[in-house]
Structures are given as C-alpha cells and as structure tokens.
Amino acid sequence: MAVAVKKKSFLDGIPDAPPDPILSLRTLYEEDPAEKKLNVSVGAYRTDEGKSYVLPVVKEVETMMLDDPSLNHEYLPVEGLKEFRDATAKLAFGEDSLAIREGRCVTVQALSGTGALRVGLEFLSRFYAQGAKVYIPEQSWPLHRRIPPLSGMGEVGLYRYFNADTKGVDFTGLMEDISHAPNGSIIVLHPCAHNPTGADLSFDEWKRLCTVIAEKGHLPFFDAAYQGFATGDLIRDRFALEYFASQGIELMLSQSYAKNMGLYGERTGALSVIVSDKSIVDRVLTQLKQVIRPMYSSPPAHGARIAATILNNPVLFDKWNGELKLMSGRILEMRTALKLALQKLQTPGSWDFLEKQIGMFSYTGLTGPEVDFIQEKYHIYMMRNGRISMAGLTTSTVDYLAGAMHDAVLNAPKGHL
C-alpha cells in the first residue's frame, strides 16, 4: 500500500503580513474580555449610544428603491452610473463650476475613496510625467503611503503638515516643502477634516497654497472623504476644491460617500479629473476605463443609486443636509466635552486645540508610551500616534477617556517610541 507523501505547498515560505494598524486594534478591542472598554480608533460615525447609524434619508431612499419595478441587477457601465457621476462632480466643484460647464471634468464611479485613489494613481503611472513623485503630508491616512507604490508611482515623499506645539497646521513648513518639491510633483491634499490630525488650512492659506502649486506646475490630487461631515456645510467644506478649479488648475479628486452618507459597506465613490483642454476629455475617459476594466470590471450599483437619488432630489438633499449638521454637531459637542473634562481634572497642558481641530479625528498629542499605558490599564484602544476618533466618544464615555488621558500624562513612562 502506497504511503501518501505530504507535498510542500508552493506557499510554504510565505511570511505573515504586518497587521493593519487600525483594523488590528478593532480585533484587539473585540477580543478584550474587560467589562469596561472603549474603542476610539475606527473612523466610523456612532450615535451617542455608541451604535452604528443609518441615515434616515438613506433608509427612505432604500424603501423607494424596493418599490421601484424598473430596477434590476444588471452591470453598470465601466465608468459607473451617469446620474451619480454628474451629480457628484457638481457637489464637489459647484453647480456653476466653469470646468464642468466647459466640459473639462471627467468623472468615473469608483470603489469609494480608496478605489478612486488606486485608479487615479495607476492612470498617472501610465500617462503622467515619468519619474514624478507623489507627496503626502507627514501625518496622513496610512493608505496614502501604500497605494502610490502599488500603483506604479514609486515610494512617496513627505511634506510637513502638523505643528506639534500648536496642534494646528505647520503652514510655513508645508509651503517650504511644496515650494522645494520638483516641478510637476503630485501633491496629495485633504480638502477638509484632515485625517488624522483634524487640523485644516484656512481659506486664505488655501489660496496661498494654490498660487505656489500653480507656479510650480504641481498636480494636486485631493482626497475628499468628509465633505459636509466636517462643518455640516457642504459648500464650506468644498472651498479648496471649488477655488482650485476656479483658478484653471488641472487636478484630480477622490470622493467617498462612506462617511457623509454612512454608505461604508457600499463602496460608493468617484474619481474626477479636471483638465485644461476639452479636446482630451474623451481620451482621458477611455483610458480610465482601461484601468478599471481589468481591475474590477464595473462598480456596484446599490450605493450609487442611493447617492444619486439624494443628490438629484431637492427634498431629499435638504434632509441629507440636516442629517450632516446633526452628525457634525454631535462630534463638535464631544470635542467640547473632552476639553472641559480634561480642564476639570487640571490635566497638564492646554486642551483648547480640541475645539480648533475639526472633523472626525483629533491628534491628542499623546505619546506612544502614554497610548500603551491607556490601553493596558484602561482598555481604551486608539492609534499609537495619539489619534482618536471623536465620533467614537459618547456622553457616557468622555469622562472615562479624560480620566485615562489625565492618568497617562502624569504617570505613563516618558518618551515618544
């Protein structure tokens, strides 16, 4: 009788991949048996009861869709749903955008903001100036560092962004670094609610930055994940996008509806390209489709239909606006509550920056050892750079976090490792 010989797998030598810094924290939190614990690492909106939130206007649209006999499950075109593509470009750049009116804006549906970045950067790796480098803020969303090399653009460069002393934007350092970057570099920018710092440029600073980018011939690539979710005002939050487009600058934009419509799992987003010459628009579209087709063939329909219905219906759009104000308002309340709780405890340092920062996230200034101390002693999970999601806080947990932060500032081991 023949003895079965166990074959070695062709993958026997495969190493473990490094854990995702955000998703691994969620796993640790879920597996933590502690009765009292808190997760302020994940960038998803929660109610004041700590529950997931489905926007009522989204529920309303889904009910309408259930009763619509014309809907089916056919493939969308490679470039996505037209009603969604047209509406999302207008949301970003304004109804009266000259670039849109002149037909110089190309928009394709994408797999949320992540997919839009990947499609856009792979497109640039094929057609933008060879050797051009992508620059991202020193503090940025982790995938901004990983997506460019995977898209064929090489390792990213960094520009200064956050001032650790003021807990705001290091605008002088930012301007120096972008001024010294080689002409024609690709500059990744957060138009509002900067992730992870919560520190945004002022309108005047955006204008000054636009001038430098134009002089250097850089290509701005905006990543807009929080329009309307930062201040509750869709128009205010798009200032940088609208202004850059109005100055005749060619640019690219990644948009996501994960946060501002709560469509996290639907992967609803878009990539827009504004060019200076209308005659190349059709060619740009065909090449973007060439990138998309072998990557995921065509985008999902459900989320795009929800977003398109809301964006194109004035009554539903107004309801959405109201819900954005509600969500952004709750986050602002948590910022104030945390600041006041830390001040009440007389925690060393000034905590006024918590109200000056904006959007879902805040850079608290906590060091790595302080974060470790808080996680071990209080079972509170946050990024090791001290970033917390303000949307993860509730009125019932803010004092618990403040107490842990107070203890860590006074008693945790010193250092920044």
UniProtKB/TrEMBL annotation:
Cited Pfam families: Aminotran_1_2
Transferase as UniProt keyword: yes
Enzyme Commission number, as recorded: 2.6.1.1
GO molecular function, one term: L-aspartate:2-oxoglutarate aminotransferase activity
Keywords per UniProt: Aminotransferase, Pyridoxal phosphate, Transferase
Enzyme class: transferase
Every Aminotransferase class I/classII large domain range: 36-404
Required cofactor(s): pyridoxal 5'-phosphate
GO BP annotations listed: amino acid metabolic process
InterPro entries: Aminotransferase_I/II_large, Asp_trans, PyrdxlP-dep_Trfase, PyrdxlP-dep_Trfase_major, PyrdxlP-dep_Trfase_small
Domain of life: Eukaryota
Keyword Cytoplasm annotated: no
Subunit structure: Homodimer.
Family note: Belongs to the class-I pyridoxal-phosphate-dependent aminotransferase family.
Record protein name field: aspartate transaminase
